[in-house]
ABC transporter ATP-binding protein
Amino acid sequence: MTTPALSITDLRKSFGPAKIIQGVNLEIEKGERHAIIGPNGAGKSTLFNLISGGYHPTSGSIRLNGTEIGGTKPYLINRMGLSRSFQVSNIFANMSVRENVRCGVLYSMGYGYSFWRNVGNLKEVQRKTAEILEKVDLLDKANLPAALLPYADQRTLEIAITIAGGAEVILLDEPTAGMSHSETERAVALIKQATEGKTLVIVEHDMGVVFNMADRISVLVYGEIIATGAPSEIRGDPRVREAYLGDEADALENGDAA
């Protein structure tokens, strides 16, 4: 039996009297593309913060490839093979696009900070950086300051930084937020290509993106997962329709969503 990439058992998180995550149980298999959806305030970002080490669980277990990571510092979780992006672009604005991605590549290849090392001489680092930039269609903008990129390209750059560390489990928090329809289509194609063979977990409000990309979907409502299943199962689940999807499920069935 294969060990899941992520295994979450009876996970709970409270802030004082406020119970935000209330007994989440979830297993995500290696190589799976898994979406977590739910209304605003459902606890999606809190769940991501718990998995990636931003918050300590009140109780429960989070296991990455069989190893307990609940309460572990984020940088240690990253070194164990899990990386995440954020809702708000988190890039080095004054560095070039290439330099942003190269930072992640350096650490993934075991190069720590060293003021005397000329990174330009590290041919394997340069090769891998260029490979990632080409994969996300940013190679032609590699020398631009990141701050000058259009918003959609900044989001793409953050995805590139996220995968640059070589993590096998990738968490993307609303990767297409604020994008136009055409930008969203391009982003979905790039995410699929860039995360091929990896385990992908996304939080996303655009149901067109979710149903287009996910192998399985979990619906989080008021800190509890009310359903997990294939897109077709989630689309037809009466509990999900009542709690979250509503008319959007009908639009998806009729092909009206992207």
Observations:
- Residues 1-70+202-258 form a domain with the Rossmann fold fold (CATH 3.40.50.300).
- The longest strand covers residues 18-28.
